[in-house]
Design the sequence.
């Protein structure tokens, strides 16, 4: 209960009570909007019992404004609450923005810590080993934190679609030209090399098998992932790292917002959606490029290329390739964001970790691709 | 008087380097408490420990008489709505404009309609003495003084009880720094804030602080300003009896 209203004919008497605090905004607003001021000529507000913070005062002022606009007069019994006056002063710009006097005459120089001296060689090996273990440990706990944040975001339905859409645009849509160009060139190279070798055996037609199976199963998705790792993995690391340097991540923590939820999850979701779509584009362009080269170099009619392609690829060929895309997306997003989060205090760190993010994500992409190859061989697809 | 914030026996170590060795600190309702210390004395580390951004090697932090370590995740989240923080470089979210920066804590903690959200945030912008036009500017378009004020507006978004300021006047020209001091004094009085301030600036200390805590040898010596200048510790003597300090004191009549 924040207010009690007594109505007598066209007179309304409001008595405010309790703590009108920002954190009770929704409750106070509900109670205020429930006050019926239709046909009221005069409102008397007694605010002596209540304590209003700035948000509470704003709510009261908003109510008073609305009431006055409705044609009623508003009076305060026992004077306006002091915070209400502060709201007025804010609105009219009567805040002491400029002060005079007390001019200090000194400056401060901040000397940052000097770099640590290089360690002894044997000691260095040990340090590297410990650091490598710590980074594995840190990486695993980072994945754990992402899972917790995901579960939380999922259960509260706060998936931030606007942010996700922005990242789909940044990582996906803007990468279409470069991905298309590289897919085209690679399929041309593949077809050209294949044609040169296979011609010796009179097996020109198998160039089509080489290009279509190669692009759909491996090259389309792998090259797309590597380009995206270079473009977006580094961007993720640099963006988050710069925020880390600017203490923005600390500020998020201090406000009570989980940085994983607002910074990492949207990037992860965005990339998981964007990378398969980019792979689809790369596959299509790759097949077209192969077809054009076969036509130009081997005088193969496009119809024949299409027929041969249809018999060369099984229905699984495409899926075997594209199923890897979301997995690669996770690897790239997690490597990039994790590197960004590890930036501490210096711009040198930012550069080092941005590089690390790219190297690491490309390494993981190729490693996991190799594991997939073994898996699919065992599964016989 | 009630201690809003209490730090008990905090120890912070970085490898072999001990920054805090059993540091105690109390902040009482309504005061402006200044944290002073030489470069590398661990002022910012202390603030990070208080805010839960760093886990101390030993010791505890209590807000409103309750130990932070024993709070549940939901309680911690609620706790964060009761204090505001400004960081040294402002730490405004560079992807958001000033108004959105102020709105972010509100969106996280309050259930507010879109109309009220805009107006409440604008009120904060005006409260810290920024022109209303600056609300739609991005942090990269602001001057150093405006960034500090915008960060203050964000810290005040939820009408906090406690306000933490990390070097609020560092990097400002003398006039802007003095203006910021006046603003802090004004807001403390009008909004009944309790302020904890890390600062190097002797002028800010003399102008705003009612009590100071000095970090020396990993511990804190706290007293009123009048009391602490007579403390025999050599660092404190050097700090308050240096040429700059003497000039300040004669001016402020302390």
Sequence:
């Amino acid at each position: 209960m924040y207010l009690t209203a007594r109505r007598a004919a066209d007179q309304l008497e409001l008595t405010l009570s309790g703590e009108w605090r920002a954190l009770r905004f929704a409750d106070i607003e509900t109670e205020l909007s429930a006050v019926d001021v239709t046909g009221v000529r005069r409102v008397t507000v007694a605010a002596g019992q209540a304590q209003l913070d700035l948000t509470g005062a704003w709510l009261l002022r908003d109510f008073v404004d609305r009431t006055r606009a409705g044609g009623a007069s508003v009076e305060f019994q026992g004077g306006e609450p002091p915070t209400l006056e502060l709201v007025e002063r804010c609105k009219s710009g009567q805040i002491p923005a400029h002060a005079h006097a007390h001019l200090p005459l000194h400056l401060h120089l901040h000397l940052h810590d000097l770099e640590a001296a290089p360690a002894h060689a044997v000691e260095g090996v040990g340090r590297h080993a410990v650091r490598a273990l710590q980074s594995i440990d840190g990486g695993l706990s980072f994945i754990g934190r992402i899972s917790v944040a995901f579960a939380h975001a999922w259960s509260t339905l706060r998936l931030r679609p606007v942010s996700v859409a922005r990242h789909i645009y940044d990582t996906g849509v803007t990468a279409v030209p470069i991905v298309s160009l590289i897919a085209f060139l690679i399929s041309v190279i593949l077809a050209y090399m294949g044609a040169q070798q296979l011609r010796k055996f009179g097996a020109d037609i198998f160039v089509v098998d080489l290009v279509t199976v190669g692009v759909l199963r491996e090259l389309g998705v792998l090259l797309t992932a590597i380009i995206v790792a270079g473009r977006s993995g580094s961007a993720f690391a640099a963006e988050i790292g710069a925020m880390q340097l600017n203490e923005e991540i600390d500020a998020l923590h201090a406000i009570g917002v989980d940085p994983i939820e607002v910074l990492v999850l949207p990037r992860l979701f965005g990339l998981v959606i964007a990378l398969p779509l980019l792979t689809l584009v790369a596959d299509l362009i790759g097949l077209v490029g192969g077809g054009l080269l076969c036509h130009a170099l081997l005088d193969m009619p496009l119809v024949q290329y299409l027929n041969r392609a249809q018999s060369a690829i099984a229905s699984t060929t495409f899926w075997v390739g594209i199923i890897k895309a979301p997995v690669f997306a996770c690897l790239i997003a997690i490597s990039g964001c994790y590197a960004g989060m590890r930036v501490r205090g210096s711009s040198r760190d930012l550069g080092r970790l941005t590089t690390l993010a790219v190297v690491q994500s490309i390494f993981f992409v190729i490693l996991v691709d190799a594991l997939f190859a073994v898996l699919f061989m065992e599964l016989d697809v | 008087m009630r201690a809003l914030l209490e730090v008990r026996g905090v120890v912070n170590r970085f490898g072999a380097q001990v920054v805090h060795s059993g540091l105690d600190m109390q902040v009482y309702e309504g005061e402006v408490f200044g944290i002073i210390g030489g470069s590398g004395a661990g002022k910012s580390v202390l603030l990070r420990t208080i805010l839960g951004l760093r886990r101390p090697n030993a010791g505890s932090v209590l807000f409103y008489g309750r130990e932070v370590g024993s709070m549940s995740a939901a309680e911690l989240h609620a706790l964060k709505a009761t204090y505001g923080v400004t960081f040294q470089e402002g730490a405004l979210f560079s992807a958001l404009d000033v108004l959105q920066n102020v709105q972010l804590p509100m969106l996280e903690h309050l259930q507010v309609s879109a109309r009220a959200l805009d107006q409440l945030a604008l009120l904060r912008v005006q409260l810290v003495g920024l022109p209303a036009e600056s609300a739609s500017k991005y942090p990269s378009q602001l001057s150093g003084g405006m960034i500090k004020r915008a960060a203050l507006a964000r810290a005040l978004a939820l009408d906090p009880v406690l306000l933490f300021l990390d070097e609020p006047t560092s990097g400002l020209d003398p006039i802007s720094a003095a203006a910021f001091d006046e603003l802090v004094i004004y807001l403390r009085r009008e909004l009944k804030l309790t302020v904890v301030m890390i600062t190097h600036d002797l002028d800010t200390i003399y102008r705003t602080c009612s009590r100071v805590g000095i970090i020396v040898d990993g511990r804190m010596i706290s007293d009123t300003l009048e009391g602490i200048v007579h403390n025999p510790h050599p660092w404190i003597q050097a700090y308050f009896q240096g040429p700059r300090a003497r000039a300040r004191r004669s001016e402020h009549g302390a």
